[in-house]
Amino acid sequence: MNADKVKLTRGIIAIFWLGFFMAISFMEAPLKFTAPGLSMAEGLQIGKIIFGTLNKCEWVFLIIILITCFIKSASLTSLYLIAAMAIIMLLETAWLLPVLDEGADRIIHGQPFMHGQLHWVYIILEIIKVPLLLLIGLVSLKPGKG
Questions:
Q1: Which end of the chain has less Cβ packing within 10 Å, N or C?
Q2: CB 127, CB 92: distance < 8 Å
């Protein structure tokens, strides 16, 4: 596979990932709580499934991007952006999602959840992903080393 195709693959995956996650994080998540007849508990149960699946899909996208870096070395800028993305993914997977899932379970079972501010940390990390993925895609699609 030639270098241009590898960079094109990296760029397309990053842009596709951006659209995929934005549709779920910024559209599906808030909209499900406006559905008539859907309780908070049901919304949280759906959210746990959707965000768990989203996280797995994001790991697949990240792994594909990392593979492209081994096939055709990426620019230093791309590597920094990809490393930042990997750090966010690790934080979400190993820390935030398990804590938020536990909180959702507590709310579903009528118990209080005291770490509501962690949801804002997750939202901020999701917002940071937007420019990271956009820049990974744009740098990878730019002629030259990407």
A1: N
A2: no
142: which 2 tokens?
């730019």
> CA torsion sign, 89 to 95 to 98 to 101?
negative
CA dist 14 and 116 (Å) reads 30
d(CA 102, CA 108): 10
Specify the pTM: 0.94
φ/ψ of residue 106, rounded to 5: -65, -45
3-state helix, strand, coil in the chain (%, to 5): 80, 0, 20
Give the type of residue at 82. I
Percent of the chain at pLDDT exceeding 70:
99
Burial class (CB in 10 A: 0-12, 13-18, 19+), 133: buried
- Across 42-72, b (16+ Cβ under 10 Å) vs e yields ebbebbbeebeebeeebeebbebbeebbeeb
In this predicted model, what pLDDT tens digit does every residue of 102-140 receive, in sequence order?
Answer: 999 999 999 987 777 999 999 999 999 999 999 999 999
